[in-house]
Design goal:
The protein is an alpha+beta fold and 407 residues long. It has 11 helices and 18 strands. The strands form 5 sheets. It has a 6-stranded mixed beta sheet with strand order 9-18-17-16-12-15. Strands 1-8-6-3 form a 4-stranded antiparallel beta sheet, covered by helices on one side. A 4-stranded antiparallel beta sheet has the order 5-4-2-7, with no helix packed on it. β17 and β18 form a beta hairpin. α8 packs across α9 and α8 crosses α10.
Length: 407
């Protein structure tokens, strides 16, 4: 007797998903509620748990297939009978062990396509790498980090199985290669939404720079006490979220949206914080950020960052949002023109901090400076409003006392 595993409800208006990765293979034992597959929706990855304990007997779709909500994804059989089949095949498996492919260790690790590709490109042994993902799974970053720390060495000839002799393990010098990889559902959605934003909104970007001295000084003085009291590190993002909340009170258009022939203003600030995930950029929402403390903001962002890395963000985590902050500085970006996240009307781009010469009181001095970029929908936000908003953010960052006295 077997039990069907069906595609669960995936959130409002989501009717289908793509199979991103099988976490269990036919013949594998599964526990109750243990994930057997990972599905990719337009926004998030969702793990499908087994409804019963037993053995996975059948996969009805392949990785990359599109499945509808309610479709039968796989079947799980009772543990005893199903588990006996692999045991009976053991002698044959033993006889063929010497002919196993060189990367057979990857099968047991259940690598995702992106991780498997990184393993092949960097010539590392995945079984020797400690995974930082959920349940100890390898991520692409784990593989790249291991490759950077690996001393180059030539593989021993005896370790290469004869069956793999016909398969080249390295590119010939000067060889030109191409690889076609199907876009993930999330990447397709990102591409569509960004292009729609360009086609619909009247996008314009204005710039300013900000002296980070005061924030860096405050962070340096209080970071240890802050972490001791709140159990979270004090970063720069909380300062910018609070600065945006303050500036949005003066310029409400940046925290509004166009709906038909009406403008919808919000008396709250739900900040979409751009976070890098293994399969693309995601924007979980810190709700009511204008009413949150520094510690609450930092904890919320840290929690989202952890969920993004583990691939456990939900559609609800990214629903809504009235304004977006994107920090390209963590990757070393000096300047950019971010694209708004529809139906929002504006996005603030932060960039890397670097020492630059500036003039203060007639003297040339060195200050830690950051470029800020505000991209906005010119249909709703005027140039004067955009410039004023950025100036308000700049003033609050350069004099954080303004954040305390609401000035």
């Amino acid at each position: 007797m077997s039990t069907d595993v069906v595609v669960p409800a995936l959130g409002e208006s989501i009717t289908e998903a793509t199979i991103g990765q099988w976490l269990k293979a036919p013949g594998d034992a599964v526990a109750l509620d243990e994930p057997i597959a990972s599905l990719e929706t337009d926004k998030v990855s969702v793990e499908v748990p087994s409804p019963v304990a037993g053995t996975l007997t059948e996969q009805l779709f392949k990785e990359g297939d599109t499945v509808a909500v309610g479709a039968i994804l796989a079947r799980v059989g009772e543990g005893g009978a199903a588990a006996a089949a692999p045991a009976q095949a053991a002698p044959e498996a033993s006889a063929n062990a010497a002919d196993a492919p060189a990367d057979s260790s990857e099968a047991g690790l259940r690598l995702s396509p992106a991780v498997r590709r990184a393993v092949l490109e960097n010539h590392v042994d995945p079984s020797a790498i400690k995974g930082s993902g959920k349940d100890g799974r390898l991520t692409k970053d784990d593989v790249i980090a291991a490759a950077k720390g690996k001393a180059p060495s030539a593989p021993a000839p005896a370790a290469v199985p004869s069956s793999a002799a016909s398969q080249p393990t390295a590119a010939v010098a000067g060889e030109r290669r191409e690889e076609r990889v199907k876009m993930t559902r999330m990447r397709q959605t990102i591409a569509t939404r960004l292009k729609d934003a360009q086609n619909t909104a009247a996008l314009l970007t204005t710039f300013n720079d900000v002296d980070m001295s005061a924030v860096m000084d405050a962070r340096g003085r209080y970071k240890d006490l802050f972490e001791k009291k709140h159990g979270i590190r004090l970063g720069f993002m909380a300062f910018f979220v609070k600065a945006v909340a303050l500036a949005a009170k003066d310029i409400p258009a940046v925290n509004a949206r166009i709906e038909g022939d009406e403008i919808v203003y919000h008396d709250y600030l739900d900040v979409s914080v751009a976070v890098s995930a293994p399969k693309g950029l995601v924007v979980p929402v810190v709700r009511n950020a204008d009413a949150m403390s520094f510690a609450e903001i930092e904890k919320a962002i840290a929690a989202f960052g952890k969920k993004a890395k583990e691939g456990t963000l939900t559609a609800e985590d990214m629903k809504g949002g009235t304004f977006t902050i994107s920090n390209g500085g963590v990757f070393g970006g000096l300047l950019s023109t971010p694209i708004i996240n529809p139906p929002q009307s504006a996005v603030l781009g932060m960039h890397r901090i670097e020492d630059r010469p500036v003039v203060r009181d007639g003297q040339i001095v060195i200050r830690p400076m950051m470029y800020l970029a505000l991209s906005y929908d010119h249909r709703l936000v005027d140039g004067r409003e955009a410039v004023t908003f950025l100036v308000r953010v700049k003033e609050a960052i350069e004099d954080p006392t303004r954040l305390l006295i609401d000035l």
